[in-house]
Amino acid sequence: MENFQAEGRTQYRLFEYDFIRVVAMVFVIAVHALVVIDFADKFSLFYFNVMQAVFFSCNGIFFMISGRFALTSRQSYAQYYYKKLITIGMPVFIFFFIRTAYIASKAEFNNLFTSYLLNLSGALGNTEYWFLYVLIGNMMIAPLLGKAFRQFTKKECVLFLGLGLFYNLCVTISSVFGQPFEYSYLFGGWIFYFYGNTAQ
C-alpha cells in the first residue's frame, strides 16, 4: 500500500477516494453521452432529466475530493505549493498551450503566445477547462483557510454547512422560478462543494 510522510507520521493511500474518482470520471462520460437520447416520448425526456441530475454530480464530487485533500494538508506551505505547481500547474500550462495551438486559426497562430496568455487568463472558460478556472484559485488559498477550518468545533462545522446549504437552496429555488438571487455569499456554488469538507 502506498504511503507518504506527513508531520512525522506514516499515512496510507485511501483507495476509496480513487474509486470515487473513477465513478466521477464515468459520470462525466455518461452525462455527455446523453445527447444521443431522442425525446420522442415523455419517458425519454424523464429519463434524460433524471440521468442528467445523477451524472452531473460528477462536478460536485471532483470539487469535494479536491477540497478534502487541499484543506486537510499539513505540509509546509513551500511543500504544498511546490506539489500543486508540479501536479496541477505544469499540466495546465502544457495542455492550455496544446489546446491554443489546436484551435488557433492561421492569423491567430502568428500571435500564438498572445492567444495562449488570453486562454490562461480565462478565454477557455466556456470549454471543458472551466473547472480549472474555479479550482485553482481555491487551491491557492486552501492551506490558509484549512488551518482555520481545522479549529472549527463540531457545532461550527454543522453551522457552516447549514448556512451554505440554505444559501444554495435559495439560489436553486430562485432560478427555478426565473428570479435572480442577488445576495452574494462567500461560499456559494461550486466553492461550497470545495469547502464543505470542513465537517469531518
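(the above was protein one; protein two follows)
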Amino acid sequence: MVAVVVVFAALIGFAAPASGAQALPPLKIKNGQVELCQPTRVHKAFEEAGIALEAIAPAKLTTTGTGRPCVHMTAQGKVNLDLTDGLATMDGGFMFTHQASGAQLRFTHVTSRATGDACVVTAIVNDQPSPIEILTFDLAEASVSPVPVPPGVEARGPLRGTADAAAALQEAFGASPIEDGAVLFDVTGRVELLSTAVGAATGLLEK
C-alpha cells in the first residue's frame, strides 16, 4: 500500500507529511502519462456554450469512445520516498476556444505540487507572468492500481476547478460553464518510478 501511494504521489505531485520521518533520496518520475478528460456533464455544458477543449503541443487531443475530448500530456518530476514533498510538470498544455468568436483561454506550464491529502495544479494563463491555481485533487477520491513490472501505478480521479479557474473562464468568455469547485476533468494516468541514486549509477555505466 505504501508503494502504491508513493507512485501515485509522483503522478500528481502529491506529498503527504510523515511525522518524525527524515528526508530520503527522491524518486524520479519515468514515463509519466497523464490524460485529462471532460466528464459528460462538463462536455455538454461546454458544447452548449460553444467552447471547445484543445491541446497545446506537445500535448495531444484524444477522444473517449463516447466522443468526449481529452488532453494527453507527458509528465516528469520527482517525489520523496517519505512523502514529504513532490513535484510534477506536464509537457504542453490545454486551451479552451470559443468557436464563434475565436476567443481563447490558454493554460501552459502546468505543474502539480502538494502536501497533506490533496494537491494543487497551477498553470500560466494566456502568457501572464505568474501562475494561478486552476485545479485541485483529493487523494481520498482517487482509485489506484499498482503495476508490478515495471514498478508503477495506474490511477484515476476527479480534478476540481478552482475559483481562479472559474474567474478566468468568465473573463475569457463572459460566463463560466462550470461553477467553482465542480469537477472539470477526470484524470487518468500511469507512471513509473526510478530511484535517483539508481539513475545516476545507470548513467555512469552507460558512459
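Reviewer note on protein two: The two ends are 36 Å apart (CA to CA).
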